[in-house]
Amino acid sequence: MGQIEWAMWANEQALASGLILISGGIVATAGQFTQWYFGAYSIAAGVLVCLLEYPRGKRKKGSTMERCGQRYMTSLVKMFGPLTRNYYIRAFLHLALSVPAGFLLATILGTACLAIASGIYLLAAIRGEQWTPIEQKPRELPQVGGTIKQPPTNPPPRPPAEVRKKLSEGQEDAAAGGSQESGQTNPLPVTDEVV
Amino acid sequence: MGCWILNESLSIILVLLWLGVNFYLFIDTFCWYEEEDAFLYTRVMLGSALAWARASAVCLNFNCMLILLPVSRNFISLMRGTHTCCRGLWRRQLDKNLKFHKLVAYGITIHATIHIVAHLFNLEHYNWSQSPDASGLPAALSKLGSTPNESYLNPIRTFNTNITAELLTTVAGITGLVLSLALILILTSSTEFIRQVSYELFWYTHHVFIFFFIGLAVHGTGRIVRGQTPESLTQHNATFCRDRYAEWQMAAQCPLPQFSGKEPSTWKWVLGPVVLYACERIIRIWRFQEEVVITKVVSHPSQVLEIHMKKQRFKMAPGQYIFLQCPSLSALEWHPFTLTSAPEEDFFSVHIRAAGDWTRALFEAYGAEEKVRKELWHLPRLAVDGPFGAALTDVFHYPVSVCIAAGIGVTPFAALLKSIWYQCCKPQTKLKLSKVYFYWICRDVRAFEWFADLLLSLETQMSERGEVNFLSYRIFLTGWDENQAIHIALHWDEKTDVITGLRQKTSYGRPNWNDEFRQIAYNHPSSSIGVFFCGPKALSKTLQKMCRLYSSADPRGVQFYYNKESF
């Protein structure tokens, strides 16, 4: 259990709590329950939590599976800097958001779940975890002819690229037997095979 | 395409059957609660939310009964062995137990959502019926139960209470909250991402199901769903008396209706599976006590540890797996490993790769990294549970089998090939299996080492017995650097392969499955061919596609049957 990244589970739990808050809020508002305005608050809180938690943070090691379409939310969440990076702030935010929803029965499940998520985030923060956004790798466009710096000056048969590089740095040639080119050392004796 | 339907038909039928039973239970219970006379007065206050809640409750009973069955591995192994007809078909179905477990879990989630929402409405309606603004029949019904010889209908007795507090003082309310929380915790820690991040978190959190089942059994004991008693129904006709509520006290025709709560029935549904699963865990504890003797430990180059063990009364089949526990590392964790020895040997062995917390800790405990060898009696004790069945036990039932392994996925096939070797040694055995194709796709050259010995001895033995056509294998190396490439190119023309030392040459790059399957289909025109695979999902999808593509539309022609094993 030593190497577990608690923030990953806290993220899943918080996202689920957000959805539960939204559903509880909709039920309370649509059914016009007593004190249904808590339900309206719960919908708003749920939406905020879902938007905050949707972009998954990067794991410390290994590859992280992105959620579908999270790029846009990642850039938005990244903008808040330390407010979203720090898990202590997230833990207290979730705890604060969950309290008002606890006054209405329809949303109390959301409160409990969000409070649990807040607790797991606190644990993650104590262990020094941080939210790092998953960056998009810049697409490397294939550069046509980018590696050709200098066209070859000698006709074929030519030595391989490394030997050509050494030649251009000015290494003295070590002509091996059977070769007509300077700097070519053949590992095996080369004979002209006429079959 | 047509053959996909044939291959997958049993799965589809079972899923449709499950859905059908769910719908039947839901609709049947719904209609009953909407029409039953005993609940007429309850419906006056609650509307059809009562029927929604009860119907989803019955479906929850059904699904909670089913959810423990697919993970009762010993039970499944038992069922696997006892089927006499259509063995292959049912065995393949039993391999999909985890998929079924997840399906039932989704069903529980949906029904739980319906149940919770319906009961939220029910509580609100009960509360409204107690309000001073309520009039008529609901108000009259709510007032019942205030005097000693009356039985109440409305569980909420006064208006100005907090419904949440009311709920939390009932058994059903508290257990409901505990149940929902347990379910949500299990769901969030079982997503595929979390299972990859930390299998241990998934394993430990999943055990919250114990609280789930305790809560489930206790949930109905409060008898909060109330209907008219049968005696009251004979004396007080609800359809006639409902409009004369002002005269109930006085008139002889309509005495006060008496109500009683519904008996809890969940325990009847879940008792069987809970007892079965408890037996499973007891078996595991009992197996934990049994002594396991470690006879040999070999440390292989690519972070692979081979452990030979002996245990009393241990019987296995090739392709099966065991659960290992090392009490000195972790008292509660059991990890699955495929057996790599053949049943004919007098020991059983596993090859463990260092891939996570527990395996790396095991490596260190067994001194795999150190130069100094540890004595066998100094090594930490291991406990073994199993063996549990897996797809490869079917290999011998097909006339032709194609075995494909990727990387460490070769372990079940190691056991199989060894077993085939031993079977071939016995001259009197007549095997149904007449041809085995084996493909091994590997990235790391060093991983060949422990398996290469096995293949070498198989190759020699096959040629000695003159049965060169029984096993044809191909190895594909998918990762190499330039130095290796030069080395390979220089030794291209030699008799034995430069990497494995085998006579069969290694191929480079990934196999062209279309060509392979086409060739196999051509060589065996009217056979049923079993395809067995252990490895990553992407390749599994490709192979499934190939099986569908190259199975002929004619049922007498070549048919590929796909079997997959993964943990």
UniProtKB/TrEMBL annotation, chain A:
Transmembrane segments: 12-30, 36-55, 103-124
Residue ranges, compositional bias (Polar residues): 179-188
Entry-linked Pfam families: Cytochrom_B558a
Keywords, ordered alphabetically: Cell membrane, Electron transport, Heme, Iron, Membrane, Metal-binding, NADP, Oxidoreductase, Transmembrane, Transmembrane helix, Transport
GO molecular function terms noted in the UniProt entry: heme binding; metal ion binding; oxidoreductase activity
InterPro entries: Cyt_b558_asu (IPR007732)
GO cellular component: NADPH oxidase complex
PANTHER family, sorted: CYTOCHROME B-245 LIGHT CHAIN
Function text: Subunit of NADPH oxidase complexes that is required for the NADPH oxidase activity that generates, in various cell types, superoxide from molecular oxygen utilizing NADPH as an electron donor. Subunit of the phagocyte NADPH oxidase complex that mediates the transfer of electrons from cytosolic NADPH to O2 to produce the superoxide anion (O2(-)). In the activated complex, electrons are first transferred from NADPH to flavin adenine dinucleotide (FAD) and subsequently transferred via two heme molecules to molecular oxygen, producing superoxide through an outer-sphere reaction.
Family: Belongs to the p22phox family.
Binding partners and assembly: Component of the phagocyte NADPH oxidase core complex/cytochrome b558 complex, composed of CYBB (heavy chain (beta)) and CYBA (light chain (alpha)). Component of the phagocyte NADPH oxidase complex composed of an obligatory core heterodimer formed by the membrane proteins CYBA and CYBB and the cytosolic regulatory subunits NCF1/p47-phox, NCF2/p67-phox, NCF4/p40-phox and the small GTPase RAC1 or RAC2. Interacts with NCF1 (via SH3 domain). Interacts with SH3PXD2A. Interacts with DUOX1, DUOX2 and TPO. Interacts with NOX4; this interaction mediates superoxide generation.
Protein name, UniProt field: Cytochrome b-245 light chain
Organism of provenance: Chrysochloris asiatica (Cape golden mole)
Gene that this sequence comes from: LOC102824558
From TrEMBL, chain B:
Gene Ontology process terms (BP): defense response; superoxide anion generation
UniProt keyword annotations, A-Z: Cell membrane, Glycoprotein, Heme, Iron, Membrane, Metal-binding, Oxidoreductase, Transmembrane, Transmembrane helix
Gene that specifies this protein: NOX3
Protein name: NADPH oxidase 3
UniProt catalytic activity: NADPH + 2 O2 = 2 superoxide + NADP(+) + H(+)
Lineage: Eukaryota, Metazoa, Chordata, Craniata, Vertebrata
Molecular function (Gene Ontology), one example: superoxide-generating NAD(P)H oxidase activity
Domain FAD-binding FR-type intervals: 284-394
InterPro entries: Cyt_b245_heavy_chain (IPR000778), FAD-bd_8 (IPR013112), FAD-bd_FR_type (IPR017927), Fe3_Rdtase_TM_dom (IPR013130), Fe_red_NAD-bd_6 (IPR013121), FNR_nucleotide-bd (IPR039261), RBOH/FRE (IPR050369), Riboflavin_synthase-like_b-brl (IPR017938)
Organism: Chrysochloris asiatica (Cape golden mole)
